[in-house]
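Extended Data, record V8-like Glu-specific endopeptidase
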Amino acid sequence: MKTTLGVSAVGSLVSGLVAAPAAGAPSTEIYPLASAATAAEVAAFWLGDGGANLTNATPYDVQTVVEKVFPGGGGGPDAKPGMVEPLLPPGSATGNDKVPAASGKVFFVGADGRPHWCTGTSVQSPYRNLVATAGHCAYDTQRLTALDKWVFVPGSSAGTAPAGLYVGKQAFTHYDFTMYDDYDRDYSFINVYNGVTASPAGELTDSGRLGDNVGGQGLAWNQPLDSSTDVFGYPAGPNPDGTRPYTGETLETSKGRTTAAKVPSLGAEELVAVDSPFTGEGSLGSSWLLRYDKSSRVGYLNALTISVADTDGDLRHDKSFSPYFDGELSGIYDAAATQWTGSILPA
């Protein structure tokens, strides 16, 4: 197998690591985010000055809204259904929180040089170090490289990092998305280092593995198109009744049933859609969870928002849409789930 590794540095990434797939497996492209030597600098960028860059980050607005979504399309199972079991978060048995601890925001610096965020989700993996989000919330479609200073903050609220901040090491995307702008493959899995917290003096402390701290959603693929799903995200658009705007500071939830969809403006024909009040900026990366259980706060990630559309002018009837999770996605997950990371701090 021949691989080519690009040069990586904080804020300057020039190419990805393209891994030749095994027979029958999808093409997987790996983009370095931060090395062990530079990860502490990335953490300091976000946690310094009392978390000013976290507070000042704005919702990512690249490819957020499209005009038309059409029913139907070619998406659907390509093999037998499959699942990865979820990892319960600490204290899940108490059932004292209705929203998943595994949800949070991914922060990064965009092509405009400013800090932005999308929604992300901790997903169960052997090393408990995996985050899922939209592909273009990890890969910069404007500069054709990985997004800079990428981190995950579970339970993020008003710029805080209550469960620690997790610096991304590398992002796994589908070759067809990064090479051919195929939005039917607009998803990414990111390995993160152990979390860190910062003292008032700016000293970093290792807070352990992501999954150990917040648990991890399961993963499901090749599921029926007509599935009931719970959607969790940080939308920053208006509420469905227009009484107040979503602020993007708290995790919101909605529920719907998925249908097949296609979006000609993206050249995407294998999507799924769900009626959702999550509109506009901040919705990107929102998790769609199959069989979500409120008492344990876990379910199975079965889709994630890559864009939204107002189909009839009524905010209550907006649609969010996602790539259909088939066997190709499970191949990208398998490649990412086998990667160990560890701490960014000296032993």
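Summary. The domain at 17-337 is CATH 2.40.10.120 (Thrombin, subunit H).
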